[in-house]
Design goal:
- This protein is of the alpha/beta class and 255 residues long.
- Helix content is 45%, strand content 21%.
- It has one domain: Alpha-Beta Barrel (TIM Barrel), CATH 3.20.20.
- It has an 8-stranded mixed β-barrel with strand order 1-2-4-5-6-7-8-9, surrounded by 6 helices.
- The termini are far apart.
- The relative contact order is 0.13.
- The structure holds ligand C2E and magnesium ion.
- Ligand C2E binds next to strand 2, helix 2, helix 3 and strand 6.
- The site of ligand C2E has 23 residues, from strand 2, helix 2, helix 3 and strand 6.
């Protein structure tokens, strides 16, 4: 994106945040064995006055180039925890940006969001990208341990696309790995299938919950379930939904 356009979009995004034009949709995540909803991932959307609903592929990278992501990330955590507190048992999963993790704002943001919402910490999971963990500093590792010690889950998002090695995986206090949707896309060659199987087996050997993203077909679901992948999300089950559509599916206390 050209620099001037980028600056304009960044100013618009800051104004949109202040004006309450960011909203969260939630994509349910299912237990592949039972079909039960086990968690919901919060995904930000920006209601742009002229362009309609802007997906995070455009807005998050803009926000991540400045401290705007800290402001937006703090709002998203608080809003998502407030929403999840009215679900019966399903957990909440929130994407966290590298900058939020490395700038030191995440721990106070978590404390505020949990305190204001009364959401039990063990119903919250943070999704971290491979890039934010690839060269983890000691400060990052300490922050992750402090988060995990509170009972909050830590999932490695988009696994299989980056440079996190299995030895790195063992050093991180993770609870889940989310296989990137590019790994399970169809048609799947014999080699692709073998590497997905190896990733799922490695996750299970490390006692991590294995989650597949981007499940679009029954064939993908059957394959993943058959190789022991435990959980999944994708358009086969449900697209991301506004809270008022999700709540009735969860038996929420208010709908
Ligand atoms: P992600 O965390 O990997 O999220 C999953 C993406 O897959 C979402 O895109 C979701 O809408 C999309 N998806 C759902 N079902 C399917 C399917 O069946 N097939 C395929 N191909 N895709 C599917 P979305 O909402 O556009 O989000 C894109 C990325 O933006 C997210 O990827 C995440 O990295 C980032 N993001 C979203 N919300 C936030 C946020 O609140 N904070 C931060 N830091 N990043 C966010
Ligand atoms: Mg995610």
């Amino acid at each position: 994106m050209e620099a001037a356009n980028h600056r304009l979009l960044e100013r618009e995004l800051q104004a949109a945040t202040a004006a309450g034009l960011l909203i969260l949709h939630y994509q349910p995540r299912f237990c592949l064995a039972t079909g039960e909803i086990v968690a919901n991932e919060a995904l930000v959307r920006w209601r742009h006055r002229k362009q309609g609903l802007i997906l995070p592929g455009t807005s998050v990278p803009v926000a991540e180039r400045s401290d705007s992501i800290n402001l937006i990330g703090g709002w998203m955590l608080a809003e998502a925890c407030r929403e999840a507190a009215c679900w019966n048992t399903a957990r909440l999963s929130v994407n966290v940006s590298t900058r939020q993790l490395q700038s030191g704002v995440l721990l106070p943001q978590l404390a505020a969001a949990l305190q204001q919402s009364d959401l039990p910490p063990d119903r919250l999971e943070l999704e971290l990208t491979e890039s934010s963990l690839a060269d983890s500093s000691i400060d990052t590792l300490l922050a992750l341990s402090a988060i995990r010690d509170q009972g909050i889950g830590l999932a490695l998002d988009g696994f299989g696309t980056g440079s996190v090695s299995q030895s790195m995986l063992k050093r991180l206090p993770l609870t889940a790995i989310k296989l990137d949707c590019s790994l399970v896309c169809e048609p799947m060659s014999r080699e692709d299938a073998a590497s997905v199987r190896a990733v799922v087996e490695a996750g299970r050997a490390m006692r991590l919950t294995t989650v597949a993203e981007g499940i679009e077909t029954e064939a993908q679901r059957a394959f993943l379930s058959g190789i022991g992948c435990e959980e999944g999300q994708g358009s086969l089950f449900s697209d991301p939904l506004p809270p008022r559509q999700l709540r009735p599916m969860l038996g929420a206390a208010r709908s």
